Write a sequence for this structure.
């Protein structure tokens, strides 16, 4: 069960901040959940945040709930990793707490708690559904940056769980950027072949989830300082073209990597998911 | 002149974080300024934030800029006080840095830097207009809590400067609540008669600014934990009725004192100001 830490009325719906004990991570975990007006059960969008974020960043900064209320979508924002003094960590912002990359770690010292794929795809959704009126047959996934990588890879790896997928500024190929090489090396070990199944571009190339998603929406700012070295949407674009996977990749002049970019286009993403989850 | 510290494209417009040296406060001051798409000059809404806030709270949490972009409104959010090691402060959250109450302090140790009325109403607007395409003949003012008090009192005290006024959850009578008594006592001295001209309810009762504002918009959440002891909109309501000042006071069931309340109704306030500033 979840403990409700805070509850706020907003946009005619209700926002909850919750905590629960996770069997996957062996820690307490936090999430926020917005429920639109009405009684549900509501289709649910899972939002995965990026490096350094908690469950609070999207919740306070994205400006998502006006559109979610209008569209009748519930929105779930988990934390980005397990946390606590007993949990392995690293001084760098791009490894350890706040930087899970949404994989199940196999390596020490990460494996005991960094089990975020398992946590998000099997435990958390059921935890939420036990306390709130969400419909687990209508779940979409989105996210930003490291969380965009999480959204794409979890959608491609669990295509019967998620019915719709989108991302903002995702890390498109962790095998081919410094953020991804560092994190996957630590969490999954030095054998790069173990990383492939967590690389969205590789998964598309292998026709994983082929036929499951009618289209994938990706928004990318062209003034994003991480675009060329870390994000590389052109790799995802080429893979989708080669594999015949429809992709709607929108490049936005002048927009950067911040929540000011996300808030500008989040309503389009909510509409994208609502169109697919309410059908 | 202002130094631009950060610039973000958002909602089709541009958000700036700026710093400048203030003659009023004798310190560096920060503000955020959103400019909508187009060339201007744009009508301008000044937003005054509440206790503990900086220029960043409204900017990141209010979700205001989609509506501001659509309506062609510039939005200016100053910091809530002077800051710095050389500036007087207090350990409490409701006095000193982050808690200016938007008055010009006359008492030690506050007077040298806490000159926020002068800062907002004469210096800041001109500083902004020197660097950005805003129209100082079309300026409105709004704010939240302590900043709602600031918006109401500055509008009533400077009715030729501001053309429109609204507030969220304002402190309606600092003479009659603990927050106001503490702050005005420190900033203006023990003689309560010096406080009156900074009490929105008293100013209405004195017919200050009578005939200048066709209406005043106030939104108040009924689940606001500060409602009864600190905010007291019923005092403002009674004064407006007695003075013949039109007031649109909306009470919202279930909403609290947080930015989740502000973000739910900020578009209505922007429309309110746009209707009056674009005419």
């Amino acid at each position: 069960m979840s403990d409700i830490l805070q509850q706020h009325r907003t946009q005619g719906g209700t926002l909850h901040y919750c905590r629960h004990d996770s069997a996957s991570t062996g820690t307490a975990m936090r999430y926020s959940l917005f429920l639109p007006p009405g009684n549900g059960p509501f289709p649910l969008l899972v939002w995965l945040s990026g490096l350094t974020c908690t469950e609070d960043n999207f919740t306070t900064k994205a400006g998502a709930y006006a559109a979610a209320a209008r569209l009748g979508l519930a929105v779930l924002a988990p934390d980005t990793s397990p946390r606590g003094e007993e949990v392995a960590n690293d001084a760098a912002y791009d490894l350890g707490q706040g930087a899970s990359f949404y994989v199940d770690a196999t390596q020490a010292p990460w494996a005991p708690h960094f089990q975020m794929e398992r946590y998000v795809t099997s435990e958390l959704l059921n935890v939420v559904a036990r306390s709130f009126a969400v419909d687990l047959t209508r779940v979409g996934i989105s996210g930003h940056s490291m969380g965009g990588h999480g959204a794409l890879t979890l959608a491609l790896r669990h295509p019967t769980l998620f019915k719709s997928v989108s991302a903002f500024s995702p890390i498109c190929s962790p095998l081919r950027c410094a953020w991804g090489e560092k994190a996957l090396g630590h969490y999954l070990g030095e054998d790069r072949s173990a990383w492939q199944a967590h690389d969205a571009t590789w998964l598309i190339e292998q026709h994983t989830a082929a036929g499951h998603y009618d289209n994938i929406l990706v928004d990318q700012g062209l003034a994003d300082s991480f675009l060329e070295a870390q994000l590389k949407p052109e790799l995802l674009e080429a893979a989708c073209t080669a594999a015949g996977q429809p992709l709607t990749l929108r490049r936005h002049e002048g927009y950067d990597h911040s929540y000011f970019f996300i808030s500008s286009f989040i309503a389009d993403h909510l509409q994208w998911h609502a169109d697919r989850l309410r059908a």
User: Anything to note?
Assistant: Chain A is about 35% helix and 25% strand. Strands of chain A lie at 3-10, 13-21, 28-35, 42-48, 74-78, 134-143, 164-168, 216-221, 247-252. Residues 259-277 of chain A form the longest helix (19 residues).
